[in-house]
Amino acid sequence: MARSVWKGPFVDGYLLKKAEAAQASGRHDVIKIWSRRSTILPQFVGLTFGVHNGKKFVPVSVTSNMIGHKFGEFSPTRTFYGHSGDKKAKRK
Amino acid sequence: MSKVRDRVLIAEISAAHGLYGATKLKLFCASLQSLTAFTALQDDDGKAYTLVKARQGKNDHEAIVDFAEVSDRTEAESLRGKHLMVERALLPETETDEYYHADLIGLAVHDVLDDRLLGHVHALYNFGAGDILKIMTAEGIEFMHPFRSAFVPSVDVTAGKITVTGFDETTS
Q1: d(CA B108, nearest CA chain A) in Å
Q2: What angle (nearest 5°) sits at the alpha carbon of residue A39, between those of residues A33 and A42?
Q3: Do residues A53 and A89 touch, judged by C-beta distance below 8 A?
Q4: Which of A32, B2, B54, B119 is within CB 3.0–4.6 Å of B137 for a Cys-Cys bond?
């Protein structure tokens, strides 16, 4: 069952404080968080979080189309194996 | 010294398919279209294979192909496990600030502040939230670092060097 709308999105309080502090400082740092359950809010767009996956912090660069998703969706907890092949990476 | 690789791994022969020498490939390239762009492939020993026909397998990472050099199932079965590669020079040019994973893997990672060697690029991932560099130090400790211009000010593939900023050694 979906979460009731009247409750609003769930976000851990400490995460909001960290995001505000990072925006105020203007520095480009990875904000380390453990809250995989928190919803990505519009004020997080442009920030980079390090979301803990149980072992390490996976960098998550928040963009507008990630709003409404949970942080944990972008930080897999299982080991990933693969080959690079002809895949490309874009430095944005 | 140039760190650009000569050949890039794009597929692996996983099994024989049918009676007439077709092979099943596990694709490491972006799609089947990327594979069909190359007609000449090479295995680990440098033996050439000419791609005649290719079609999609059960999923996006599987293809069934016919090679001109393989005519029966026995021959196709003997190729199982072979890696197929293409010349790096044959890959299409990339856009500005776009890099092939194969070019970035192995580059030395230096800190932008003091030019200290932090490690080497071990792998690149994308879990839906931007590209990520996996950096491995000389001690074998792995770190993940965002591949964004704010965190990676410069990439020099020919010099074999990447500089990073905001590198946090506590995020291993």
Answers
A1: 17
A2: 100
A3: no
A4: B119
Tell me the residues of chain B between 131 and 170 that have a Cβ less than 8 Å away from chain A: 131-132, 142-152, 155, 165-166, 168, 170
- pTM (2 d.p.): 0.78
**Please, which residues have CB within 8 angstroms of residue A24's CB and are 6 or more apart in sequence?**
none
Give the gyration radius of chain A's Cα atoms: 15
CB contact under 8 A, B130 and A60: yes
**Preferred mutation among B131, B133, B157 to probe A, highest tally of A CBs within 10 A:** B131
Q: Out of A58, A66, A90, whose CB is closest to B98?
A: A90
Nearest in space to B76 (alpha carbons), one of B41, B40, B49: B49
Answer yes or no: is the ipTM higher than 0.90: no
Q: Where are the domains of chain B?
A: 4-88, 101-164
Same fold, B4-88 and B101-164: no
Q: Which residues of A24-61 are buried (b: 16+ CB within 10 A; e: fewer)?
A: eeeebbbbebbbbebbbbeebeebbbbbbbeebbbbbb
Domain at B101-164, CATH class:
mainly beta
Q: What is the number of residues in chain A?
A: 92
Report domain B4-88's class.
mainly beta
Find residues 43-102 of chain B whose CB sits inside 8 Å of chain A. Answer: 86, 91, 94-95, 97-102
CA distances from A46 to A28, A41, A75, B49 (A): 10, 11, 17, 46
Model confidence over B113-147: pLDDT tens digits?
Answer: 888 889 999 988 888 888 999 999 888 888 889 99
pLDDT in tens, B91-120: 888 888 888 888 888 999 998 888 888 999
